[in-house]
Amino acid sequence: MIKKILLIGNPNVGKSVIFSRLTGVRVIASNYPGTTVEFCRGCIGSGAEKIDVVDVPGTYSLDPTSPAEKVAVAMLDRAVEAKDSIAVNVLDATNLERNLNLTLQLLKKDIPVIVALNLWDEAKHIGITIDVNTLEKTLGVPIVATVAITGEGIKELVNRLGDAAKGEYSYDNDERWHEVGRIVDRVQSIKHKHHTVGERLGDLTIHPWTGIPIAFVILFLLFFVIRFIGEGLIAYITEPFFGNIWAPLIMQVSRVIGPGNLLHKIIIGELIDGAIDFQQSFGILTTGLYVPIGAVLPYIFAFYLVLSILEDTGYLPRLAVLLDNTLHIIGLHGMAIVPMFLAAGCNVPGVLATRILETKRERFIAATLMSISIPCVAQTAMITGLLGKYGARGLFPVFATLIVVWLVAGNILRLLVKGESPEIFTEIPPYRLPHLMTLIKKVWMRIHWFLHEAVPFVLLGVFAVNILYALGVITWLGNITGPITTRLLGLPLKAVGALLIGFFRKDIAVGMLAPLGLTLKQLIIASVVLTMYFPCIATFVVLLKELGIVDMFKAAFVMISSALIVGGLLNVIL
Amino acid sequence: MTELRLTDMQAGQTGKVTRVHGGHGFRRRLEALGMRPGMKVTKVSGQIMRGPIVVKIGNTQIAIGFGMAYRVFVEV
């Protein structure tokens, strides 16, 4: 009786897409090796026939070299021991030889195997023909050709799950590559095709003299498109909605509750000149809803749309190659650009994605550094909203400081943190046109995550702010931390409230600065310090899990001390 | 036929891997992505200032750090 199905295969062969197809569970799939760093579960069938399906991180062999690969091998070993599982070995049909290496290793394990020969369309397209029948006979396990992204072959795969077999192929382990070569010679024929125009253009993006200028143009475009979409949505959709529809509605509620009491304070907040000011009122239904929905959501959408396109085309690994030398400054290799990019959306997936880095040292540096110097898109949106009215004079100092901090703090960590930092060694996937439905689903998943996981926290944060103010906690904290806040950072005592709430949600914390009447200099310092001093609680929890308590302490020390140093320096320089 | 290091190949040049200098673990890691003696590799690009090398093996492009590529020998 099968209880569990493990999806096993090389990185970036489409396991996550097959997983989604089989289970209906939505998972993030992208076009670079290492999208899945943690296994993911779902199930097919129902009742007594329910079978668990596990999306295992990709691995090239059964001797793991990275933590994500270790997860994969450990999962397989457990499944072999339990004797109630089968393995669906997902292969990239365009790279049969490399993929069969893992298959042959898998056949030595005591577990029934069925092979999904994925990317079948791409293989045909580039002139590769594989004789499925002969391959099936040779390996002694069922083989199904699939195109996961369109769903082709998935039904047959499901129908044949029961045929999964232990395989009869025996070979000498030292001769494995010879065996692989022999099989490939027998079943595969290649019609030679010349370089296509697309491939030639693709190569330009990875040659230094053409690739670096192209990278600059792409990054600039990304930035421009994100701002264009984000600002457009705010100006034409969310602002009019909140101003023209929501505000009058809430004014009615305000009249019913009657201003001045605690309930009004919590739900509506302060009325500014007798009206609601969504940036300053600070009630749950005013600022509490405006910040996540009105100000942040447009940027969440814009950022994740652009990031998802970037992920699905396969450009990120190329950027990793071009930026490899830059990342060596901070003790990492090029692929660290992937977690850094994800962190600019939200630090939580950013920290998780550090698992694609091979050593503990790299993961510590990457996770600490992103917590210090990469604000999540929610915080960036709020900073942009707060400082945007000053133009470059307001925004440039904040982001330039964070980039300098990233380089300098990274370089210091490189010198101080012991351990190894290996070189880049990664597969560069072919460019692919993003599949529209997959793209839409992915962006929606990320927005959905924000609405479900982040918005409640924002509302809770606003509630907490009001309660803490009413109880006098924030004033009290302001008084005891006074010397640091006022003398070192040059901020008013009231700003301590924002630093306190920053532990909860950074976007709300930045929002708390709006009603304080700060000068431009104070706004810049507060924005930088809020980014650096400590991660939000959600990030803190994953950091603790990923780094362990000792390293988390070290990281926290780096965060707090660098925030104070940088904040103090800005106070002197600006 | 001359043997040279992967780092010394010109972009666009094709050769056959002859040997990989390094320990067992290192060779295994390279092997897993198809870089092993006997395989045909084409150099796609090399970044400036000893940056990573990109090669094509079969249908796969692989990025490999300069120091690692220095230990791979090819016959052209």
Summarize the helices and strands and which ones pair or pack:
The complex is a heterodimer of chains A (574) and B (76).
Chain A: E1 4-9, H1 15-23, E2 40-44, E3 51-55, H2 67-82, E4 85-92, H3 96-107, E5 113-118, H4 120-125, E6 128-130, H5 132-139, E7 143-145, H6 154-159, H7 176-187, E8 188-190, H8 197-204, H9 208-257, H10 262-267, H11 287-313, H12 315-322, H13 324-329, H14 337-343, H15 347-353, H16 360-373, H17 377-387, H18 392-416, E9 425-428, H19 436-471, H20 473-480, H21 482-488, H22 496-502, H23 506-513, H24 520-532, H25 537-547, H26 549-573
Parallel strand pairs in A: 1-3, 1-4, 4-5, 5-7
Antiparallel strand pairs in A: 2-3, 6-8
Chain B: E1 3-5, E2 14-20, H1 24-32, E3 40-46, E4 53-57, E5 60-64, H2 66-69, E6 72-75
Antiparallel strand pairs in B: 1-6, 2-3, 2-6, 3-4, 4-5
Query: What class would the helix/strand composition of chain A place it in?
Result: alpha/beta
Number of strands of chain B: 6
CATH topology of chain B: the name is SH3 type barrels
Q: Strand content of the residues of chain A, in percent?
A: 5-15%
Strand order in the sheet with the most strands of chain A: 2-3-1-4-5-7
| Helix-strand sequence of chain B | EEHEEEHE
Q: How many strands of chain A?
A: 9
SSE-based structural type of chain B? alpha+beta
Oligomeric status: heterodimer
**What's the pLDDT, averaged over the residues of chain B?**
94
The CATH architecture of chain B can be given as: Roll
Radius of gyration of chain A: 27 Å
Helical content class of chain B: 10-25%
Share of β-strand residues of chain B: 35-45%
- Give the CA-based shape of chain A: elongated
The low-confidence parts of chain B are: none
- Spatial gap, N to C terminus of chain B: 6 Å
